[in-house]
Write a structure and sequence with these properties.
48% of the residues lie in helices and 8% in strands. It has 719 residues and is α/β, with parallel strands linked by helices. Strands 1-6-2-5-4-3 form a six-stranded mixed β-sheet, sandwiched between helices. It has a four-stranded parallel β-sheet with strand order 10-11-12-13, with no helix packed on it. A three-stranded antiparallel β-sheet has the order 7-9-8. Helix 30 links the parallel strand 10 and strand 11. The radius of gyration is 29 Å and the shape is elongated. The chain starts with 6 loop residues before the first helix and ends with a strand. It holds the Pfam family NACHT.
């Protein structure tokens, strides 16, 4: 009898090339990740989330509570590691198909990346060949194609391996990432049986027959999906269900922060001792805040929010370039892109509404109403009023069901404050202000007449006398009895409605200016200090539960409104299905200019002036900033803790013009020699300069000497 050697014995080069290619592709990190330094890699910082074995009965069983705490109170569910997903089940049966599911932000895609990279490095010896597919890519094609052609089209170096598929000697794992993108039909009438890897069929039919075990029955398959799509695969085709439960243990959160914030080069500094000390201090403060069971611990249940916390801390503590390379609104926009890029709320719904657009319309409305009423916690009744009050069709109800199942916990979480356990808060406080800003800037907050004006002005630009088109669109927002009046207006005043829609932009500009200069916020900390406190906590005695809370502060709301209008953020939001036109951004800036500049001349308190400068940085509009800054002749930032980031913002914003500054007051601002170097070009232009009561040691003498001896120095009086 002849001995049949494993196929990999004959084809080691092809599989090694495949491993090398996959490793390079799946190890590649998006731009947002590269800010952690050149040494950052998936292997160096990955922390596996908790994975719990589940069952179809548990998935289909109506949950009395959609909260994160409900997930944590399920001790009976067995924890299983990624490497053991294909172990035999409780009945001793071999598992071939695994469904790995989790809500948005639990880390499904990152987990798959790690799985593939581990196999490439020889850490998954159970499989000789791993073939990953993106269900998003598969959903874009309906042209019949054979499985073998599909594989070689994506992985050309496997063309010599593909003919061996179907051999019992080759242990193959197919990875199907993002099954919710595919609308699968397991009925024989909907998808015919196919057992031939050479037969061309639609990509969705390939997936169905792989899961049926009719095509390559010996292959193992791992499917990732959101909870709402789990039931699309009949239970008889699934050997194991496993739910990604995030970082349910605060020790996992601490480990994640330790790895992320301790990366060499994270702060861009060469001083190793200084870098290490500051990073260790950040990790220690963050750990103490997590141990207090603060709201941030509930947020960091989701690995995605751990990423946001680290990125925000990186921005607050390690920004030293002028101008700063990041904006806070840019971080939040990028965060949403990482989690929602290309995501459709429900692939089975004909509208194919983008998930982010749906969030902006619904959660954004809740966020905005909360900001306007100075409210951060919401009851179930509040949620129903926001999400369900306008539900009219079956499609809208289905969309809401998918949202509650897949996305709700990403934005809203139970309040941990005693006495408020049955209310919900935004997972990260600043996210409420960001979504409220997005809701307003997108123009979702409109009166009926503004809605009509928008619709009609768009029609006038596209059609002339097509009454049928006019009727079909306008009838959505006006009763039929008003249509004759409407057509008369169209004939008499064709520009009336375009002017009406323009008033919406004036309203946005006025809202932004009013919120930016609210007098009741004048004696709060500046927004950067507020963000820092929300993440790292406030050292000192805890407030008694019965003690009245301070008034809610929403000073980031107008700053985010400006930041969202920046060109870069609008481009990213466009990818997410949230379109803000160039003309709209221009008109909002134009309408806002007079109000903002007039208010800035009133003489703002130091912390509010810092917020105003930060707003101008976030807005990323050089012409607007230059005009606004020319009116600032006296700049009083006394007692504002000038971190490296604030120094960079001040240098960047004031540096947008060359005008002389009559007086710059930096008394008691925690300045050091490094701060002086950052601010040097600005200090040169100041006539009266206050630097007293700062941490300026002997090393600052050189900086001050160089300043005073500079041939362009305008300083007449130095204190």
């Amino acid at each position: 009898n002849s001995v049949v050697l494993p196929n990999t014995f004959f084809l080691p080069d092809a599989i090694k090339k495949h491993q090398k290619s996959l490793s390079a592709w799946f190890s590649n990190q998006p731009n947002e990740e590269r800010q952690f330094g050149p040494s950052f890699s998936l292997d160096a910082v990955h922390v596996d989330p908790v994975i719990r074995e589940s069952s179809l009965e548990q998935i289909l069983k109506p949950s009395p509570d959609l909260t994160i705490q409900h997930q944590l109170q399920q001790p009976c569910r067995r924890v299983i590691s990624l490497q053991n997903l294909f172990d035999v089940d409780a009945c001793g049966r071999q598992v071939k198909n695994v469904v790995l599911y989790g809500t948005v932000g639990t880390g499904k895609s990152t987990l798959i990346k790690k799985l593939v990279v581990d196999w490439c490095h020889g850490l998954l010896p159970r499989f000789e060949l791993v073939i990953p597919f993106s269900c998003e890519d598969l959903s874009h094609s309906h042209v019949p194609i054979s499985l073998r052609r599909l594989i070689t089209k994506k992985y050309q170096h496997l063309r010599d391996v593909v003919p061996l598929l179907g051999s019992s000697n080759l242990k193959v794992l197919f990875i199907l990432n993002g099954l919710e993108r595919l609308n699968l039909d397991f009925r024989l009438a909907g998808t015919e049986l196919c057992c031939d890897a050479n037969e061309p069929v639609p990509p969705s039919a390939i997936v169905v027959n792989l899961l049926r075990k009719y095509l390559l029955p010996e292959a193992s398959i791992i499917v990732t999906t959101r909870p709402s799509a789990v039931r699309r695969i009949p239970g008889k085709y699934v050997g194991r269900y496993a739910e990604i439960c995030g970082f349910s243990d605060t020790n996992l959160q601490k480990l994640y922060f330790q790895l992320r914030l301790s990366q060499p080069g994270c702060d861009g500094e060469n001083n190793v001792a200084s870098r290490s000390g500051e990073q260790d201090n950040l990790v220690e403060m963050l750990s103490r805040n997590l141990e207090r069971q603060n709201q941030i611990a509930a947020a960091c249940f989701l690995p995605s929010y751990c990423w946001l916390v680290c990125t925000t801390l990186h921005f607050l503590y390690f920004t030293r370039t002028v101008p700063p390379s990041q904006t806070l609104s840019g971080i939040y926009t990028s965060f949403l892109r990482l989690n929602f890029s290309g995501e459709v709320l429900d692939s089975t719904d004909p509208t194919k509404i983008s998930m982010m657009k749906y969030v902006a319309k619904t959660v954004g409305k809740l966020a905005h109403e909360g900001v306007m009423s100075r409210k951060t916690s919401f009851t179930e009744e509040d949620l129903q009023q926001c999400f369900e009050v306008e539900m009219k069709t079956e499609s809208e109800l289905n969309q809401l069901e998918v949202f509650r199942s897949d996305v709700f916990r990403f934005f809203l979480t139970p309040c941990v404050q005693p006495g408020k356990e049955h209310t919900f808060v935004f997972t990260i406080p600043a996210m409420q202000e960001y979504l409220a800003a997005l809701y307003v800037v997108l123009g979702e907050k409109k009166t009926l007449m503004q809605k009509v004006g928008k619709e009609v002005s768009e029609i006038i630009g596209k059609v002339s006398e097509d009454a049928a088109v006019v009727l079909s669109i306008i009838s959505k927002v006006l009763p039929l009895r008003f249509l004759p009046v409407l057509f008369n207006l169209l004939k008499m005043f064709p520009r009336f409605f375009s002017r009406l829609s323009g008033k919406g932009r004036d309203t946005i500009a006025r809202t932004m200016a009013e919120e930016l200069f609210k007098e009741e916020d004048y004696y709060n900390d500046d927004v950067l200090d507020q963000i820092n406190s929300s993440i790292l906590g406030v050292e000192g005695p805890m407030r008694h539960p019965d003690e009245a809370a301070d008034d809610e502060v929403f000073e980031l709301f107008p700053i985010f409104m400006g930041g969202i209008l920046s060109r870069r953020n609008r481009a990213i939001l466009e990818q997410l299905g949230c379109s803000i036109k160039n003309l709209a951004a221009f008109e909002i800036a134009k309408a806002m200019k007079k109000t903002v500049i007039r208010n800035s001349r009133k003489g703002l308190p130091p912390s509010e002036l810092m917020d105003y400068l930060f707003f101008l940085h976030e807005f990323q509009n050089e012409r607007f900033t230059a005009e606004a800054v020319r009116s600032l002749r006296t700049i009083n930032l006394s007692s504002v803790k000038m971190t490296p980031l604030k120094c960079s913002v001040l240098a960047s914003v004031i540096g947008s013009t060359n005008h002389e500054v009559e007086e710059l007051n930096l008394t008691s601002c925690n300045l050091d020699s490094s701060s002086l170097r950052t601010l040097f070009p600005i200090l040169l232009r100041c006539k009266f300069l206050h630097l007293q009561l700062n941490s300026l040691g002997p090393d600052a003498c050189k900086e001050i000497r160089d300043l005073l001896l500079h041939d362009k120095c305008a300083v007449n009086n130095l204190r």
